[in-house]
Amino acid sequence: MAIVNISGSVMHGVVAISLAIAGFGALAVVVGHIVRSAVILFGSLLASGVRPRLEFEIGVVRDETSFSLGVLGADVVSYANKNADYWFVGNRLGTAQLGIYYVAYLIPSLLRWRITIIAQDVLYPVVSKIRSDTPRIVSAYVRVVRLAAFLVFPTVLGLAAVADLVIEIGFGRGWSSAVEPLRVIAVAAAVLSISATAHPIFPALGRPAVLIRTGLVSLVALVAGLSMSYEHGSLVGVAWAVFAASVAGLFYLQAHLKRLIGFPIRSLIRSIGPYLASAASMSVLVFLVRRYLIWDTTPILEAALAVFLGVTLYVSIGRLGFWSAFKPQFASIKDLFSKGSP
Predict the structure, then answer these.
(1) Local confidence band at 219 (pLDDT 50, 70, 90 cut-offs)
(2) Fewer beta carbons within 10 Å, N or C terminal of the chain?
(3) Per-residue pLDDT tens for 179-211?
(4) Chain segment 302-322, per-residue pLDDT in tens
(5) Contact at 8 Å (CB) between 290 and 333?
(6) Dist CA 34 CA 28 (whole Å)
(7) Could you give the CA distance from residue 125 to residue 77 in angstroms, rounded to a whole number?
(8) Which of 26, 25, 32, 42 is nearest to 9 (CA)?
(9) pTM across the whole model
(10) What is the C-alpha to C-alpha distance for residues 188 and 165, in angstroms, rounded to an integer?
């Protein structure tokens, strides 16, 4: 699987860059993605030895239709949620502002997604196997959501504290208008990380329709926020609409978690509170130190100092103030890197 995925990524880069150099513009990116998907598809077929045959069994279709339609509906609503802000910015503010907003949205979202996708991949099969044992489901979810919060919160909130450096180093000062929306979306990404971690529980328990309703609640909140900023639209206003939609979706999802597995919002706060408090304190302190104590230097050096300070503060605050919550996470990291560990 690793060889197949790496091969797909390599071919994606080769084709996209080659076509871009040849002058194909945005089409180079599209073709690159198609080539990557094709390489992974055919590579997986060759590696597995599976040869699909054309078959149709009405019984299988009938049994799977209800569940599959629920999953499809959730994906459709999720697609609308992920693109409504793009549609708004592109049509209301123009393509140049859309490019800036895309950068502001992509960086924190990608960092969040890289972590939560692992949690989702782990939680779905686990819950599917123990679906009749609610206490074990709660225990598994708590462990996963704590780990996600431990990793995501300092990452995205730290990003908010150094957003100006990230934009300047990665894109140049001409993209400075992406800084403020990036900060807001980074906070929204922290909220979304908790929702995304809980998502696999519902299809694993045969309740994918909950995700449709959750997505609709988020979409209504997003559209309402975008409508409020229509007359005097700004990228920061759009980012706050995304944040509001994230919060609305999380509360609705959490209400259903309470009904389904008996996990109320206060239990969630107790589970993630130490990591949120530590990451938020770290982010504020890094921002203040950068503003009042760090002398003028190069952006790369300042970013390196800010990252070092952020990591030191996060670990220190966790050890001093929330050791009982941080200790299991530190132990997991130690086990991961120790010799001979499974």
Answers:
(1) very high
(2) C
(3) 999 999 999 999 999 999 999 999 999 888 899
(4) 999 999 999 999 999 999 999
(5) no
(6) 10
(7) 23
(8) 32
(9) 0.81
(10) 20
